[in-house]
């Protein structure tokens, strides 16, 4: 009986050891991104605003996070969040590296109309530079509740996150 008990304990210990060895094995998975959209435009961006589209250094804002994400209900649409570092959100349409909307409804439900902004126009493009990687150039028009232009800004944004590969430069390829 003692031999039988030792065999059972030995098998249990062997099973536990094998389980720990294989459970802790580092499994490598290839990260596969969809071709084209949404990889090019979505992600987190470090953004700077130029008030009234004035590109002089005195008119530049502090950096902030701009987020671009898929619209889950429309495959041809993109949601831009935190425009103007104020939480303003808008749905835009895209075509490859260009995105746009004319007087789109400001989507932030809780803060709808905050800062007097009810509609937003966006005209933007994704560019690539070999030294700095991906960057966005965006003209933004902010409209009040009467659809009158309240303010214009120019946004310059650089890719912050969204890709696990630290050697990533651009999905547009090296040009």
- Judging by the overall fold, what is the CATH architecture of the domain at 43-161? Beta Barrel
- Give the helix proportion (percent range): 10-25%
Outline the low-pLDDT stretches.
Answer: 33-37, 163-175
Shape: elongated
Which series of helices and strands comes N to C?
HEEEEEEEE
- Find the structural class using helix and strand composition: mainly beta
Strand order of the largest sheet: 1-2-3-4-5-6-7-8
What can be said about the biggest beta sheet?
8 strands, antiparallel, barrel
Task: Describe this protein's structure.
- This protein has an eight-stranded antiparallel barrel.
- It is built from one helix and eight strands, in the order H-E-E-E-E-E-E-E-E.
- The protein has a domain at about 45-160: Lipocalin.
- Mean pLDDT is about 75; it is low at about 35 and about 165-175.
- By secondary structure, the protein is mostly beta strands.
- Strand 6 (about 120-130) and strand 7 (about 135-145) form a beta hairpin.
- It has one helix at about 1-25; strands at about 45-50, 65-70, 75-85, 90-95, 100-105, 120-130, 135-145, 150-160.
């Amino acid at each position: 009986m003692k031999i039988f008990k030792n065999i059972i304990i030995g098998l249990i210990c062997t099973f536990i050891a094998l389980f720990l060895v294989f459970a802790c094995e580092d499994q490598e998975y290839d990260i596969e991104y969809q071709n084209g959209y949404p990889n090019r435009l979505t992600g987190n961006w470090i953004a700077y605003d130029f008030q009234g589209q004035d590109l002089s250094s005195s008119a530049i804002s502090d950096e902030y996070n701009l987020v671009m994400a898929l619209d889950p209900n429309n495959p041809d649409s993109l949601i831009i969040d935190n425009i103007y570092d104020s939480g303003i959100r808008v749905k835009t349409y895209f075509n490859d590296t260009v995105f746009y909307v004319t007087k789109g409804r400001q989507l932030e439900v809780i803060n709808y109309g905050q800062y007097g902004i009810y509609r937003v126009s966006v005209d933007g493009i994704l560019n690539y530079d070999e030294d700095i990687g991906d960057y966005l150039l965006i003209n933004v028009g902010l409209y009040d509740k009467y659809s009158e232009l309240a303010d214009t800004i120019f946004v310059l944004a650089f890719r912050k996150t969204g890709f696990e590969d630290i050697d990533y430069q651009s999905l547009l390829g090296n040009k």
